[in-house]
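Annotators were shown the component list below and the corresponding predicted structure, then asked to write short factual statements about the assembly.
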Amino acid sequence: MSKKAAAKDINLTDKAGDVAKSIWLAGLGAYGKAFDEAVNQYGKVSKETSKMFDDLVEVGRKLDSESHAKLSKAKTKTTATIEDRINKVRGSVNLSALNMGGSDAAKIEELNSKIDVLSEKLDALLDSMAVKPKAAKTRSAS
Amino acid sequence: MKTREKILHTSLQLFNEEGESHVTTVDIANEMDISPGNLYYHFKGKEIIIEILFEKFEDEFSDILHAPINKELKIEDSWYYLYVVFEEMYHYRFIYQNLSDLLQRYEIINKRFRKLLNLKFQTASSIITTLREANILAIDDDAVDVLVNNIIMTITYWIAYSNLKDGKQPEQILLHKGVFQVLSLIAPFLSQGKLEYRELCKQFYVKALASDSLKP
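Structure shown to annotators:
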């Protein structure tokens, strides 16, 4: 295993939340029990049981990575949606200027939003005139 | 949009506008210009449509209530967040406009709504407790429960109450009023700066109404 791959593994473990941990532990418990039972049945640790254990570990590893993938996917989706929605409200109401106290701040904020609207309109206009998007982006020097 | 999605979309719209109990599956089919048979092919009745709509609401609303809001919030962030909470409920307002009646007639969502209500309570409760631990609120244990109940009651019944009191009004106005109402509930328990807090809430309220009413 390369260094990079190992680092990635650690990173994954870091990211795992409590839920992932408990899923993993529960899984480990179940497999542990299955292993004990298998050993009892055979009466001794044979080649077969150790192969069985390897299989179980493999299954566990697979499950572990699947649960990580699912969890992180769900997390990103949730965070993104709510942040988007909050930003939308922030954009339409924009109360932050009030916290800065002065009416100047509010005015600047207002002017800024007007400039944004104008820039958008300008972009749309340029687009409709079939100007290449690269040309339209030069406005970002503000 | 696929027919199935379109049926759900149209149903939600009709339920919200006319009240769920006044809308039949035939009305939904008519509105979409499809045959009732076609609608039946996708959904075997109104109950299933309602169940699926509720499921969507449940998913979205739980996401919002579970939102990882760990960083320190400014008051205006609370305003935005609460607005999104109200907005989500407004998108599915047919549930809240006639709540008891709806839950009585659809046993299947009754239990799940209670669960959601419980989640609302827990979320509000943990926010209030966090504010108390940070000494922002000075409030004793008994009062926490009363305050949380008041918050949840206001949130749950705001749409119905506000429509009753002030008549039909634009969505944004209705929702900002709700946010103002809820944030004002906390004011008496602030450990300091009550007056400033009230003043700030009032300013937000005025500004929010002004900027939103300008929109077409």
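Statements collected:
1. Chain B has eleven helices and no strands.
2. Chain B has two domains: 1-44, 51-213.
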